[in-house]
Design goal:
The chain is α/β, with parallel strands linked by helices and 440 residues long. It is 35% helix and 13% strand. It is built from 13 helices and twelve strands. Strands 1, 5, 6, 7, 8, 9, 10, 11 and 12 form a nine-stranded mixed sheet that branches. The radius of gyration is 23 Å and the shape is globular.
């Protein structure tokens, strides 16, 4: 039998991932454990957020082009917040619905990443028009949602958040949590996410006997049942899922004993989700080193009509919830260990469609946390219909930064090595800039 010589750890990681898919790889991808605590919180803006109106350039020529093309959707005057500037002194303004985030930019805790999106590799307009190297099924909600959460143009059944957790051997019940709906983003080759509805207890019925010793005896009896598998692989798998659920219920009971915070969260759907995330972060962080990944979502961004009011309404919810979450992390002293960021399946056309806009491609994202290097990163496209950055003549921006670069910048802060980042984002090596620079 010939021996296989591994040329790099990257090959080992890829082999391990392949075996894990077949259920043959018993050990974690990474043997070493983390020596600190960190968490990533994805806030998914479902439907395709209009980044063109989330941040607007204020310099004369670009703002004039923006207004001319956007028409009735253009923002100016009272529709924009106090100007913010990038490192070169270029001025921008956030949408007036993001009022709570403007001071966080001034404080250096908020970054804006311009014109990022799904790419196989750097792509020119000429290559796009020839069909060379462009991702498949662009402009499709379902396909682009899967690609955004997978982190690569070819969906393989795992998400980049889950694969990052695989690198750290994160195995506890609180490692990957969605407080919204099941999400591919959290699914690794070994890590499988849990879904927790905000404010809902997951304990089994009949487990609240009095005295507490009677309740504990019942729990022990139920738990012992999960050790009886009779050698059946199916029963072993079912028992493992049941045991994991019992442990998760126990963890959530412990979360109920945490001291209350002074931070007040808005009573919106996203506010409730981030309140739950804040609680679970506090619970896990007090246990020592480890990694967590969370998924939240806010829907309604498919604004083909009535965009003015709808976009303000949604961005206001986003701003209030993110600001409260950041405040809660500051209150608990964890803001430097927790980073929240937005994702969306695509942007929207700069050219309006009646009172709304249509599906596009490159988009702008927000990153918030105590470890964030505040500022504006990347570059805006040239606001010219049919110009060098426009894929189809309607202001559909070809991304200049890839989702892989965006995710890898977060992953490096999370603690992943360069080889591990190449494993999590297989096309990262095709981009000259591996780190966008918005994390310390």
């Amino acid at each position: 039998m010939k021996h296989m010589h591994m040329n790099s750890r990257r090959q080992f990681l890829k082999l391990g991932a392949g075996l894990a898919m077949l259920g043959l790889f018993g050990n974690r991808v990474r043997a070493a454990q983390s020596n600190d605590y960190k968490a990533l919180v994805c806030v998914y803006l479902a439907g395709g957020n209009d980044g063109n109106n989330m941040i607007v350039p204020l310099d004369g020529p670009r703002h004039a082009s923006y207004q001319a093309i956007r028409g009735g959707l253009a923002l100016s005057g009272v529709d924009l917040l106090t100007p913010i500037a990038d490192a070169n002194g270029n001025e921008y303004a956030l949408h007036y619905g993001l009022g709570e985030l403007n001071p966080l930019y001034d404080a250096g805790d908020l970054a804006v990443v311009l014109n990022s999106g799904m790419l196989h590799r750097p792509l020119t307009k000429a290559e796009y028009l020839q069909g060379i190297g462009r991702p498949g099924n662009l402009f499709s909600h379902s396909d682009q949602t899967l690609q955004a959460q997978t982190g690569v143009p070819t969906v393989d059944g795992t998400g980049w958040g889950g694969r990052l957790l695989d690198c750290f051997g994160a195995a506890d019940s609180l490692a990957a949590i969605s407080v919204s709906s099941p999400a591919l983003f959290m699914q690794g080759y070994e890590v499988a996410g849990n879904v927790i509805a905000p404010g809902v207890a997951l304990d089994l019925p009949g487990m609240n006997l009095w005295p507490s010793s009677a309740a504990e005896a019942r729990r022990q009896a139920v738990s012992s049942m999960s050790t009886q598998d009779g050698g059946s692989l199916l029963r072993q798998a079912a028992n493992q899922v049941f045991s994991d659920g019992m442990q998760l219920a126990a963890d959530l009971r412990a979360a109920g004993n945490l001291p209350p915070l002074q931070t007040v969260f808005p009573g919106t759907a996203l506010g409730n989700q981030l309140r739950e995330v804040s609680k679970l972060i506090r619970l896990r962080a007090q246990s020592g080193p480890g990694r967590q990944v969370f998924f939240c979502s806010l829907g309604g961004f498919d604004t083909h009509g009535g965009q003015d009011w709808q976009h303000w309404y949604l961005l206001s919810q986003l701003s209030q919830a993110l600001a409260a979450f950041h405040e809660s992390m500051q209150e608990t002293g964890l803001s430097g260990q927790v980073t929240a960021f937005t994702q969306s399946e695509f942007g929207r056309t700069l050219q309006p469609s009646g009172s709304g806009s249509d599906h596009a491609w490159g988009n702008h994202q927000l990153v918030l946390g105590g470890a964030v290097q505040g500022g504006i990163y990347g570059q805006l496209p040239e606001f010219a219909l049919g110009g060098p950055d426009d894929a189809n003549g309607r202001g559909v921006w070809i991304p200049t930064l890839s989702s892989s670069q965006f995710g890898a910048t977060l992953g490096r802060w999370f603690g992943a090595s360069e080889d591990e980042l190449d494993w999590v984002f297989p096309n990262l090596a095709l981009f000259p800039q591996r780190d966008i620079g918005f994390m310390s």
